[in-house]
Amino acid sequence: MARIAGVNIPSAKRVEIGLTYIHGIGSAKAREICDKIGIAQERRVNDLTDAEVIQIREVIESDYMVEGDLRRETAMNIKRLMDLKCYRGLRHRRSLPVRGQRTHTNARTRKGPAKPIAGKKK
């Protein structure tokens, strides 16, 4: 089992798929990394040599923002919006949808389970 960017990559999967387990790397970036290093798409993680794993680790560290740094930057961006008290920041603060979705119905994922309102029944 290879460990890259603090994440254990499953050894039975293809390298391209295994890299997507790292936060911040999707299928397109994983394919790009494999092409840079010259790893065939059908190779499995357990077939990689130690030198190839080190190469992957170096490419990710130098060219991409992943895991903790990416999570920290995202959290800081949201905190900045909330401190500015802009519309998007207020929506984050109130745990409502940020990107213009309706809230009269739906939005249950963001708002949480429905809360009963007293005095509604006849």
UniProtKB/TrEMBL annotation:
One Gene Ontology term of the molecular function aspect: tRNA binding
InterPro entries: Rbsml_uS13_C, Ribosomal_uS13, Ribosomal_uS13-like_H2TH, Ribosomal_uS13_bac-type, Ribosomal_uS13_CS
A GO BP annotation: translation
GO cellular component, as recorded: cytosol; small ribosomal subunit
Region (Disordered): 94-122
Annotated signal sequence range: none
Key words, A-Z: Ribonucleoprotein, Ribosomal protein, RNA-binding, rRNA-binding, tRNA-binding
Keyword RNA-binding: yes
Protein family (similarity comment): Belongs to the universal ribosomal protein uS13 family.
Record's function text: Located at the top of the head of the 30S subunit, it contacts several helices of the 16S rRNA. In the 70S ribosome it contacts the 23S rRNA (bridge B1a) and protein L5 of the 50S subunit (bridge B1b), connecting the 2 subunits; these bridges are implicated in subunit movement. Contacts the tRNAs in the A and P-sites.
Protein name: Small ribosomal subunit protein uS13
Lineage: Bacteria, Pseudomonadati, Pseudomonadota, Alphaproteobacteria, Minwuiales
